[in-house]
């Protein structure tokens, strides 16, 4: 293996300056670098390994940033980053993590957008091209020449991508859409379209119907999408083209990883597992909350498949991340459907299943449910279909800015007729899942799958024999009485008072419930310097879509203050509803009547955060025991 | 013309019982009934006229409700309603309006879903079919046999429809997708796909590439989609089919309307205008707020096209409703883009235009912006692109339950980095439009186009010479000082105090600002029975995405109470932010310090409402002058 090229590449000009015979060696060096980076650091390695040659060819042929390349999802942009001045971040482990996992205009003029959700590249590229065309076209004054969208690796079947294809053809001017066809999505490919793509591959791109032609687009095929010379040739032919064209390239996802993996004994699940993380790095580590609780849920549902023909688990393309293992999927058979990366379809599909009497359970990330806001409201909640949604990765985390889970409550909690449950333990999670999938006497139910704070509390209790989890079954009448608030009609509408105190009541929603317990325990102890003990109540609200006003009113007897804790955006969220309830009740009293409950809300700010560790965010938002305790002590003084 | 069939049809069985030679006469009678209904009552007449024969044929061949028909958007379901027991609601003008404009399971077992947004029918049908397949297939126990999705009239190019096509093929079992190809969308068709559809029509369905085949679907073509016998034959052939198939029917939108219109002198704009309303009924009436303010905005932008090449108006398929007239569009040329019914693409497209230095203005309804929630957050706000969104039809209205504009504030106001402006007059609206389209020093700006309450106030002031509108230009430094709150960086971040009083401050957001003025005027008068005058302040917040905390703090000096008014869902909305601000500020004071601002919030409940007149909703939510005044007087007593 020849080395030493990559370290001398600080911009695309250096790729152009190389002798063409050295391009394969550069690709090999990049591939080796990526594999090492993936093993040490993790990341979207599989998809990037497949795109090494295509990315080198793009920068060999086109003139970024005059020519603008938009990477769909931008999880295939590592090689692009290496070739645009950021190679050290992949070569030098001290610098790992100094560049983001997605394109980012703040990092480089060669990055067009911050992108992390699928299918939008063609629409964005249409916009870049539109401005160019308005300002004189390829030779005009816009500062944009060729516009290139790089899409594929499953994202082609995402709703907006089709809208983009359809509109690119209508627009009719220069645009080059590189379709990276690696025969895979995140897990497997799904959809009738992929059969036709297979026929295109088999025929060398000549078979009909050609879906790209069907959208009115010109088309070329490159069989060996990992042959850098063939790609350079193909891209050169379409540079400065006067109409939109699709370059369909056939690549091998994860190319270069197999030998290394095989030597280390890793034999399967490669493409799924290395989507996010090298499998070797994950071996032996305890499961994170997503997989832990996801596996719990699937294990709870699986025994019911035999006697409940209509019970179906639906996952739009990311089963592995959520504990829906390959083994489970195989055993589930027709009771499992992967819809590909199509969240919108998945929600409407689930509503149809429920309407016909089936029992759908739809699992995906909080951040991806955002795509379904309209379907959640119209096809689901307006129609009152009893669908269960499992919302993974919700809450404050160290995620990048495209995948934050902290926006879920403002979205889910403000849709009429939808119930958003916030379990505070694995037992509560399963009780809620049992209810929502066995009773059909409710509309849409979303369950916020417990996150790391709850898993940590449960593991600590298991280790040390503590009081957590406090959740006790689903039989006690007092905990399952129907709430009298708003549109609440679930057995979880009543708040659970788990510690009865005075002075201050701490309402800990979902993942923040362990923090509420911790704060109450701390406050119960009189501290140094004459700090007196406070006997706080602790409450598990169980859900965030209706208020238990009976509980809130009852709190007035012995409490002068209520504190709400949630690990999601405060603005538009849940704790504010508690505040507003008291304010409007109290505000209506005649002047002079001192009936006033004080409320403090703790939660996330309305902001995007990018890979800030969760612990830092908790501190930033005051969501730590010392900060909340200080606020309570100050106010009660 | 033979009449008298329709009145004897009370269920699909009656359609089946007719002699087949009488079907054309039934269709003619339905068409005449529809035209009369449209002229007297309004509605989606054009699309329904094109679907008369297809709907009769569907109920002639299939056995609803065992066979399940899902009407996309369900704006083509009037004939279906006539044939399923609801004909009197279209024949007897005393009964007009007793059925909804969309399918509704509460009306009939033949209606599968409440639907009003485009493209979801195939996904919903996939769900119905999935449950059927899990429960034994066509002859099983599910209660579902054939599943039929009726789509078209422009909705085929909607994002989720493509996901549906792709997944229907994957599913592989019985499903009949009727594509109503009337060569039109709401305005014109857009997208490269439509060229291929035209070739399919020209070739009698034989040309390649066939986009439906490309998605892996079987396909048949019916050239005369208004020939009931041909349709009966086509549907009969595919009844109980064992795989998904597309029946592409070529229909004439508005068939039967032309002669009547021509006789009345209506010659153009037919298909757009009669999408919602018969053009004759609209003639001579003053424009509603949507068209009035939409035309104002377009007139403001148009003179700039000559000198600003990058200025572009984008409308996803419903220009006419928003005052973007055919004449404007023709004059605008390349400065206007209709993307078809593709809101998601439109938002990403706009972000791309802005990124490349253009100035996009994207106009659509509040209810349709819901589809773009993820693009608003990711492609727009996260990327900080200076795009202007014109949000039409926002706020409380008498709309049906699928098109409510009262959910806009919880959605827009909780997205980081997005500014949602709420003008209280036409002048303010144009000043905000000027700023957002001339300054690029901001991220996404959405402008809530003024609604009927503001138009009424402006018209009343014009007639009677009153004080409204109060908005004064964009020059006064005190009104345009930058706010110091949150992420506010707009010249409209500061609240405008338009009436300086004491005791109570009334904050009237957007459309509710005239109500705030009215209440203050009423309170200023001492009433009967010794009711004393109250000198209220009136405030125009101008926007709802950040708080002017300096203003809120200043109010403490002379006010003990703040009232917020908004014509949108309270839960997750704007007024609650004001409440929460005061509560958290006050809650942090040590016990015993009496620093407590009372707040009352008025706005819409978290609920779906269906064609309830706006005035009734205002009363329901306490948003009338007497109700607010009583609350204020009670509290201050």
Automatic annotation (TrEMBL), chains A, B:
One of the record's GO cellular component terms: cytosol
Keywords assigned: Isoprene biosynthesis, Magnesium, Metal-binding, Thiamine biosynthesis, Thiamine pyrophosphate, Transferase
Domain of life where this protein originates: Bacteria
CDD domains recorded: TPP_DXS, TPP_PYR_DXS_TK_like
Residue ranges annotated for the Transketolase-like pyrimidine-binding domain, each copy included: 291-457
Cofactor(s) annotated in UniProt: Mg(2+)
EC number: 2.2.1.7
Pfam families to which the protein is assigned, alphabetical: DXP_synthase_N, Transket_pyr, Transketolase_C
A single MF term (Gene Ontology): magnesium ion binding
Any GO BP: thiamine biosynthetic process
The protein's annotated pathway: Metabolic intermediate biosynthesis; 1-deoxy-D-xylulose 5-phosphate biosynthesis; 1-deoxy-D-xylulose 5-phosphate from D-glyceraldehyde 3-phosphate and pyruvate: step 1/1
Signal sequence segment: none
Subunit structure comment from the entry: Homodimer.
Family affiliation: Belongs to the transketolase family. DXPS subfamily.
Name by which UniProt lists this protein: 1-deoxy-D-xylulose-5-phosphate synthase
